[in-house]
Design a protein that fits this description.
Number of domains: 2
Number of helices: 2
Radius of gyration: 21 Å
Helix content: 10-25%
Largest sheet: 8 strands, antiparallel
CATH architecture of the largest domain: Sandwich
Strand content: 25-35%
Distance between the termini: 14 Å
Structural class: alpha+beta
CATH superfamily of the largest domain: Superoxide dismutase, copper/zinc binding domain
Strand order of the largest sheet: 5-4-7-8-1-2-3-6
CATH class of the largest domain: Mainly Beta
Order of helices and strands: HHEEEEEEEE
């Protein structure tokens, strides 16, 4: 934040002086200052690192990074210790991984009250319906995606993922069973905390 404040103050000063010299119109100065502030804020990079911990007797662990730049959130996760094959990953309602089975994180995050489904399907999906990812024979898996349907710490409750949890399930999401895709036990949990 300090890195943004100094350039912002310098730009405001220059903008204000140039407006005073050219136009002597304070309204134009205010508009230019707001333009500069908006461009700096919109290019700001926000990142959260989420530690993924074992649940339900699993030994799986990992790290997940969420990065927002210009209104687009990227998710990258690396996980080890899972059984080979497909596993479901979702965003759940609460950043609470205190229970041994991960159920303290609540159900799927679904702020728009849609049916559970596959991410991007026209039939609808939860904002937390990330989907399935593949785990290799050696137990390693990687997930990558990006979307403008999430934000990190914004004021829009239908987009803000802060305060939610990342859950990896033992099984595969079938994309049809309601309300959560019949993906089985929660084997990994990590709170999205800023």
């Amino acid at each position: 934040m300090k890195k943004i404040i100094l350039p912002l103050l310098a730009l405001i000063s220059i903008t204000f002086i140039s407006c005073k010299e050219e136009n002597k119109n304070p309204q134009i100065a205010v508009e230019k200052i707001e333009e500069v502030r908006s461009s700096i804020v919109s290019s700001e990079r926000i990142q959260i690192k989420v530690q993924l911990e074992s649940k339900s007797g699993s030994e799986a662990v990992g790290e997940l990074f969420l990065t927002e730049v210009k209104g687009v959130v990227s998710l990258t996760a690396k996980i080890k210790g899972l059984t080979p094959g497909l596993h479901a990953i979702h965003i759940h309602e609460k950043a609470d991984c205190s229970s041994i089975d991960g159920k303290s994180s609540g159900g799927h995050w679904n702020p728009t009250f849609k049916s559970h489904g596959k991410w991007g399907d026209e039939g609808g999906y939860h904002k937390g319906d990330i989907g399935n990812f593949d785990v290799s024979e050696n137990g390693y898996g990687k997930i990558e995606m990006e979307t403008n349907e999430w934000c990190i710490g914004c004021e829009d409750d239908t987009k803000n993922i802060v305060g939610k949890a990342i859950i990896v399930h033992m099984g595969t999401d079938d994309f049809t069973s309601q309300p959560s895709g019949a993906a089985g036990a929660r084997v990994i949990c990590g709170g999205i905390i800023r």
